[in-house]
Design brief:
By secondary structure, the chain is an alpha/beta fold. The protein has three domains: about 280 residues, Aldolase class I (TIM Barrel, Alpha-Beta Barrel), CATH 3.20.20; about 60 residues; about 120 residues, Double Stranded RNA Binding Domain. The chain is built from 17 helices and 14 strands. Strands 1-2-3-4-5-6-7-8 form an eight-stranded parallel beta barrel, surrounded by eight helices. A three-stranded antiparallel beta sheet has the order 9-10-11. Strand 2, helix 2 and strand 3 form a beta-alpha-beta unit. Helix 1 packs antiparallel against helix 11. The C terminus is likely disordered. It binds 3-methyl-2-oxobutanoic acid and zinc ion (ZN). The site of zinc ion has 6 residues, from loops.
């Protein structure tokens, strides 16, 4: 008998984007979608088309350009959402509409304020509507794990009759328990009590409120789920979604136990994790399984001794399997173009001759300031190159100078190049150097935004490390994220602040677009 396959649905671009405080541009979503394509996930949930015109456009661009995986858009069980979802994915070679509706009494009573019959009717009508557009329709009973089982079975059998081809059991609030008597039993009961379930794909979507999302996803596979949903780095609403890379490596490393096939190219996992972390500004904790900085580092003497003798003593999987680079060539100011190119290729970058020339210049500038240029530095450098090439740029930071100290008032002077290519200089004080730089930028541009989040991260270890800064600003109720990197963190902060301001200015130009609807978990 052929080994059964478990489909992987990545929802980083939809549920992941619902993490508090993050927002991705259409371009950033496309970049992540391309990485997910390289990773060979089966389904990319590209967004929630009806939630905003920006998301509609992002989903629709991904649907047109990303070939291979199924491209899905989420829709509430209302006509406009289903119609928009279809319009956003209709040009994909493999489109999917994903309809969701709350099945639990708690949600129906307090949120939807509708009775069971009304909700049932909505689910059926909207699945039928989606089916009128598209063969591939997923239905999710939201908060399924807190739903009366009889009602859940009835709802699922009705939506299957209406045309749903995937049924996704959503543990929306991370309430399930990963045991045979818990989530396992629910899956068993669904399979035993829902007529037609054997003809559709049974999926699970687990949240991490009790830290059990991956465990629940894996036990679900043991109990018959053949699609699992998750996000890279486990990002998502509240405590996040199941971490897709952990599910993948669980199924891959313990194939002996699960006995199922998956499609993923596991060597693309590390690149995906780094990319999502950089784009969202959400750091990956060092001890995070699979992709954390320490995931393959051995500190104690006993462990090091074992690993030197044989890596399998303390490693259940090899770092290369998840794409962690294991390169030993040191890059620095004496390195040439060929050495740099080869390392960039190892890290998955394919550059034209022209782009390589530009990157080499930036590399030399950095190598002048740093003893050793590491893979992390290169990723940041490439990110900066891409950012400056693709971001809406009204102003660039030409020069920053600051003075201060613990007894003096921090003062900064900045020179910016404006949209008309003319330079403008101004200075300001602040309650610290970063504040002074941001105030000086505000003075040149004549804007007022509130800085709501500021994160600085050393890219590598050591005193000469580059600082990577992520800043979030708020203006007129909207949030904009900016990033910048430099060996000087004050300069990096200025770059990050300006990048957020540029995004705000670009959005102002094309605004007047109201946000639509509420977002699910
Ligand atoms: O958590 C949830 O219930 C969801 C559904 C839309 C699948 O994200
Ligand atoms: Zn969710």
């Amino acid at each position: 008998m052929a080994t059964e396959k478990v489909l992987l649905l990545d929802t980083t671009l939809r549920d992941g984007e619902q993490s508090a405080g993050i927002g991705m541009t259409g371009q950033e979503k496309m970049e992540i979608a391309r990485q997910l394509q390289r990773m060979q996930v089966d389904i990319i949930e590209a967004g929630f088309a009806a939630s905003s015109p920006g998301d509609f456009e992002a989903v629709s661009n991904i649907a047109k350009e990303v070939k291979g995986p199924i491209i899905a858009s989420l829709a509430r069980a209302v006509a406009n959402d289903v119609d928009q979802a279809w319009r956003s994915v209709e040009h994909s070679e493999r489109p999917r509409i994903h309809v969701f509706l709350s099945s639990s009494e708690i949600h129906q009573m307090h949120q939807l304020r509708k009775n069971r019959e009304e909700v049932m009717e909505m689910a059926v009508t909207m699945v039928e509507r989606a089916k009128g557009y598209c063969d591939d329709v997923e239905f999710s009973p939201m908060d399924a794990t807190r739903t009366n089982p009889e009602y859940l079975f009835q709802m699922l059998s009705e939506v299957i009759k209406a045309g749903a081809t995937t049924i996704n059991i959503a543990d929306t609030v991370g309430y399930a328990i990963p045991s045979s008597a818990g989530f396992g039993q629910l899956l068993k009961d669904v399979q035993a009590n829902v007529p037609g379930i054997e003809n559709v794909v049974l999926s699970v979507h687990c949240h991490n409120d009790l830290g059990l999302a991956v465990a629940n996803s894996l036990i679900a596979v043991e109990f018959g789920a053949r699609q699992v949903e998750g996000c890279i780095n486990g990002i998502g609403e509240r405590a996040g979604n199941a971490s897709l890379e952990e599910i993948i490596m669980g199924l891959d490393t313990r194939k002996d136990h699960f006995g199922v096939e998956i499609n993923a190219d596991t060597t693309q996992i590390y690149g995906a994790s780094r990319m999502v972390s950089r784009i969202t500004g959400m750091a990956v904790q060092s001890n995070k399984a699979i992709v954390g900085e320490n995931a393959f580092r051995h500190a104690s003497g006993i462990h090091q001794d074992g690993v030197i003798k044989n890596r399998s003593t303390y490693e259940v999987m090899q770092p290369e399997r998840v794409g962690v680079p294991g390169n030993t060539l040191v890059l620095g100011k004496l390195s040439g173009r060929a050495g740099l190119q080869s390392r960039l290729e190892d890290l998955g970058y394919a550059l034209s001759r022209e782009d390589m020339t530009k990157v080499f210049e930036s590399f030399k500038e950095l190598a002048d300031k740093k003893r050793e240029v590491t893979d992390r530095d290169l990723e940041i450098l490439m990110d900066e190159e891409k950012r400056t090439a693709t971001e809406p740029i009204s102003y660039t930071l030409d020069h920053v100078q600051f003075s201060g100290g613990d007894q003096d008032i921090a003062t900064a002077t900045v020179r910016l190049i404006g949209p008309d290519q003319k330079s403008a200089t101004d200075a300001s004080t602040g309650n610290g150097p970063v504040d002074a730089v941001c105030n000086a930028i505000d003075r040149v541009i004549g804007c007022e935004c509130e800085l709501v989040d500021f994160k600085v991260q050393a890219v590598t270890e050591g005193m000469d490390s580059m600082g990577s800064v992520t800043i979030r600003i708020e203006s007129a109720g909207k949030t904009y994220t900016g990033r910048g990197a430099d060996t000087d963190i004050i300069v990096a902060s200025g770059k990050a602040y300006l990048s957020a301001v540029n995004r705000m200015l670009a959005a102002d130009e094309e605004s007047n677009i109201p946000a639509v609807g509420t977002t699910p978990d």
